[in-house]
What does this fold into?
Amino acid sequence: MSKTLFVVLNKDNADGLMNVLRSLVNQDNTCKICECFDVLIIDGGSKDDSMRIANEFQSKYPCIRFKIQEVTGGVGPARLEAIKYALSNGYSYIIWGDSENIYSKDYVARITSFPENCEIVSGKPIVLCSNIYEKLFFWYHAYHVLFSYVRKRHAPGNNKAVKVSTYSKSTYPPVIRSDDFYFSVIALKKNITFCYNDEALVTVTLPNNWEGIKSWQRSRILGSVQGALLLKKLLPPDFLPWFLFSTYPLYFIISSILMLMSNPFGYLIMLLASAATLFMLFKLFKLSNEVCVRKCLTTPIAGFIGMYIHSLFTTYYTLKYLFRYIDRKSRENLINTSKEILGKYGFKLDESLN
It folds into this structure.
């Protein structure tokens, strides 16, 4: 049996599942499927042809397994189920993937080349940047590339390899999304080390319409709020910086008013806000040149606007979902349900999330 398990999370994305499986069966000779790694597809109850496509590949590659998710409710429970499967079947490494991605021919070999003392390795995302939505949010899956300190503290949930032994120290909260963010929060408390391999390339996709963007943002933030409550935090850890960014136009309005009043603080605020804007545009320009397939001078500007839209979504939906859990009964239901899910897969809430 292969020591590495490649987990593909999927729901109602038959075309994407076909593409990701093609990229996995075409891995080069340094790490071939069914010799170097096996594949587990965790499916969230797809109504399309996902199972048929998986069965077609499995007929040629018997190490591919298609498994309907036992506990519905998002990505968190799916990851817990995959971890239990990996532990039960003696795997040493898990690569976390997604049916929205396409992996380079040497991705598996490179992402599992663990440097000494590293327990988690993330790869480099590539974005087509061919439509307005990809230009607005191309930075999202590449945030660990944008800032070097981030990749030392976090690895994207759809682009990383993890030593299975790591899950004895940290695991994922059973929330709808943002589970990988809280995994990183817990992992840092346990002194788990993160590394980055910029030669492990994966092409990632984003929603290609506004409704898809809104659905993604809502589930992302709901998971973020749920995770904060499970970790007994007043707010999600990333709420404050995004909230401050959502007030970005106010800095220029206030500085303009103060400047009209000949107040020197107005010039200082304007200078600082302008410098911060130029710095982020410069960083986004470098990032777009590094991760975007289609180069465009307007992409950094679009990315900055996308960050602001992201901050508005984060502020609005965080407050909305916190209000949903404002009463004690709702919070207790969330905690009790989470305990049941964690217990089903061999984890405990107090040990893994506090």
Remarks:
- DSSP finds 15 helices and eight strands in the chain.
- Residues 121 and 195 are 5 Å apart (CA to CA).
